[in-house]
Specification:
The chain has 3 helices and 11 strands; from the N terminus they run αβββββββββββαα. By secondary structure, it is mainly beta. The chain has a single domain, classed as Sandwich (Jelly Rolls). The strands form 3 sheets. It has a 6-stranded antiparallel sheet, with helices on one face. A hairpin with a 4-residue loop joins β2 and β3. It starts with a helix and ends with a helix. The mean pLDDT is 94.
Length: 148
Amino acid sequence: MNHREIVENLGLEPLPGEGGMFRNTLDDGNSTAIYFLLKEGEPTMFHRLPGPEIFHFYMGDPARISILGPGRDYGDAILATDLRQGHRPQLIVPANTWQAAETMGEWSLLGTTMAPGFRQQDFELATRDELGHGWPEAAALIERHTPA
């Protein structure tokens, strides 16, 4: 299967601002869930949300989730199924944490779940200057995941 088939089969659309392709699968007023597809060469932009976001790995190549945390910490986690390699099929990004994602191959199909649910007005896109002041040692990572 290729990413075009996944987009067609799942009815995915571009995710404005953040990047990637998505489709809402649940919004019941208490929680939200989406399918989320990352394609090669199209990383998401750093953003943060006021509540925790749970990532789930479904299929494709491993995905890297990069996090800029409190106290100037930064790092990443790999979403995939090879537990011996340190991959995880699920990752929780804490509330108010800058996050970005990218596939480590051609494509990765993920899902995310939030409770309380995602609301567009709560989405905060980072700027390069803003993150550069807080995490100067992560300059290359920040440049790759912020709008020019």
